[in-house]
């Protein structure tokens, strides 16, 4: 006679641990466990009134064992393919059991996470939809959840699928990795969730997923399961990108804040699809080679403009889902426009639902009080000395470049990362091991990030917003540099805007503010930034920085843009400046599009369009942009007339493009003459590198831009005869408050 199998016992203390969420391996208690004579099944359903196991056409009633744990024994020798029927006082629901599945992370993944070397961290942490085929041909679909919380005593999932009651879904800890994991069958796209994390202090903390791919729309803070179904159409762009050398290519960047570029009537936000329909043709028409988006990563407070990130792997849900953002990038690529996004690895906000004290300890933030908080922004500073944190950030950089086909990352606030005493008074910071002020761990992180990006994503770029004279920002890491592709030239921005704000009559005393940048222009690979930072917080718009009446302000603006586009380095212009935005930028409202009803503002826009067109068609303005031999002053010292004149060459030195047989880049030279005086200069003798006809290819004072129309009838003829160190010269008219470009006619 066969005896009735008995339940495999578990100590009450261990059951208590499961109920309290403190059991590091709940799968050892819950789920199906074979033993002599049968298979014991335990199910955690605290609010259930009846639980039944369905298997092999049979039903086994479970009894309530301990504070929401139900138990029963199946009279079988092996674990069957079973389901669980749960009733809560009414009709029962049949579900699958999360505690019958193996871990979704392998040993190699856990090893790489421990080492801080998992470059595709997003593939294993976070929420991933998985599908399994059973021996009977049935497909089991669900979502695996995995989170790094090494100091946690327990982790639960609180979600829409358990009525936001995390008690039903405790997670298991995988070895010594600090990773907690659980596969929940039946869960898919669009499911909201959070992690409940029990700290060593006995406190439960409700946290969004640090690796979430999607979120609720702020101010809601839940993470959302998301499986991409997007099919890319930018193969041509991606293939060509891999072979590019951006430092030697044309680059004019249009900086955009997605929420305030343009809005619907009534103030509603554009979606990613709306932006694709409107922004792409606009940027294409103006001829910018790239757009740069202020941070698109999810952030709770719109007034931070995205610079206080709470979900580093999720495009903001304000404009749609992640595939909507993919669509926007795809459309830009198909139009031939590169995409740069601002990235913020320096610091993160203290919002309790996000990274702050994630497992009850300073996990992502530096635990050293003199390093761990940013005094200016009220944020936490990442712990760059912890390998798992560096891994999180390096993987995040790769994620945007690889998963969203982003072409470049502009890294925010690099200076705050490099210096231990940044915004700190004496006594508020601790020197490094050598007694210096450099943050050696941050330097190591930036080198690792740049080295990894350029290894894995050929043709991509990284750009440092670095406001000090740190040496070697764009030097390769192999030579001890930080390894960035470009650096924002904050010195040029500060000096040139300072010069422009002077009345023309006073500018002669500040002439050096416009020439000093050429002393160091090739010390790094530079981007010339006129960014959002220059048109907020009481600084006024770019137009309003210019002195004089309205005509003079517009003329100054046009002249400045003409000078900027000819200056060595790549260009970046914040949205609105391209049409002479009147008011200071504010993220809560759209640009002053009504200005385009006025011809003088359409004129500024037309100038920017022509600047981009002529710039792109003049390789001398951008090839070998990091070679000092491609620039030569004609006259840097004409302070009395507020005039600057110089040559941009396409070759490798003075005169290199004049003889195609001796030049590897036989492209016409570009000559720029900028007059920041309020009067024209008639009969101005200009030294030129070659005799012949020089076309006036751009004049910011042209009537088509609503200028005064002073110019050179489209061309000048240079004759032989030394002048200003050049072998030829021409007598030209230099318009007032204007920049003129000349290019030799072939």
Automatic annotation (TrEMBL):
Keywords, ordered alphabetically: Carbohydrate metabolism, Glycogen biosynthesis, Glycogen metabolism, Glycosyltransferase, Transferase
E.C. numbers: 2.4.1.18
SMART domains noted in UniProt: Aamy (SM00642)
Presence of the UniProt keyword GTP-binding in the record: no
Highest taxon above the source species: Bacteria
Gene3D superfamilies: Glycosidases, Golgi alpha-mannosidase II, Immunoglobulins
Subunit structure: Monomer.
Function of the molecule: Catalyzes the formation of the alpha-1,6-glucosidic linkages in glycogen by scission of a 1,4-alpha-linked oligosaccharide from growing alpha-1,4-glucan chains and the subsequent attachment of the oligosaccharide to the alpha-1,6 position.
Family from the record: Belongs to the glycosyl hydrolase 13 family. GlgB subfamily.
HAMAP family: GlgB
Name of the protein: 1,4-alpha-glucan branching enzyme GlgB
Species for this entry: Nocardioides koreensis
The organism's taxonomic lineage, starting at the top: Bacteria, Bacillati, Actinomycetota, Actinomycetes, Propionibacteriales
